[in-house]
């Protein structure tokens, strides 16, 4: 993808925000989700453990119902007519849970009774940055920890995921879905390698 100069990218952000604001009084609100479409890949055989994915912590600046766009100058602008289907932290947790379950063949027992016979791994995720820049990139900066219930041992990791995106809100949301899928895959790798210790190689 050809990268635009910073001044043009900033103008694109302002143009998108201005256009959406101008339509706010007459355009219906659109809702978006971070839950990606169902994948065609088969779910692996059920693993011999369960996970408990706790609520995802998100930055206060983006912890609002609206999508928050970032300009090249660093200004943040919530867009009233473009909103998440659920609170952002809940959207992130739901999408991560679905991806982990599909990748590992595990059950997420958050708010459910956990079978005492199965090892349980408690997963915590904290998002440091969640940037949305139209016609430029979607960025997810996150850290996570995995704690084993039986001996309370913990593994911690962190990574940054950036996806180049085209113009429009749909492209931004798709970019965040892709970044979140990469995060889920790295958390899955942490779970697989837990006994060996350390974090999986991560990408930027």
In short:
This is ABC-type transport auxiliary lipoprotein component domain-containing protein. The protein has helices at residues 6-22, 88-104, 169-192, and strands at 30-32, 50-53, 66-70, 76-84, 120-133, 137-148, 154-164.
Structure description:
This protein has helices at 6-22, 88-104, 169-192, and strands spanning 30-32, 50-53, 66-70, 76-84, 120-133, 137-148, 154-164. The protein is elongated, with a radius of gyration of 18 Å. The strands form two sheets. The chain has a four-stranded mixed beta sheet with strand order 2-5-6-7, with helices on one face. Strands 1-4-3 form a three-stranded mixed beta sheet. It has one domain (6-32, 45-196): ABC-type transport auxiliary lipoprotein component (Rossmann fold, 3-Layer(aba) Sandwich), CATH 3.40.50.10610. The relative contact order is 0.18. Strand 6 (137-148) and strand 7 (154-164) form a beta hairpin. The protein contains three helices and seven strands; from the N terminus they run αββββαβββα. With 204 residues, the chain is an alpha/beta fold. Helix 2 packs across helix 3 (169-192). Residues 32-188 form the ABC-type transport auxiliary lipoprotein component domain. Pfam families: ABC_trans_aux. This is ABC-type transport auxiliary lipoprotein component domain-containing protein.
Percent range of helical residues: 25-40%
How far apart lie the N and C ends?
17 Å
CATH-level-4 superfamily name: ABC-type transport auxiliary lipoprotein component
> Would you count the extended β strands for me?
7
Q: What's the overall average pLDDT, rounded?
A: 85
- Structural class comes to alpha/beta
Largest sheet: 4 strands, mixed
Net shape = elongated
Total helices: the number is: 3
Kindly report the CATH topology. Answer: Rossmann fold
Instruction: Supply the CATH class.
Output: Alpha Beta
Signal peptide: 1-21
Protein name: ABC-type transport auxiliary lipoprotein component domain-containing protein
InterPro entries: ABC_trans_aux (IPR005586)
Domain ABC-type transport auxiliary lipoprotein component: 32-188
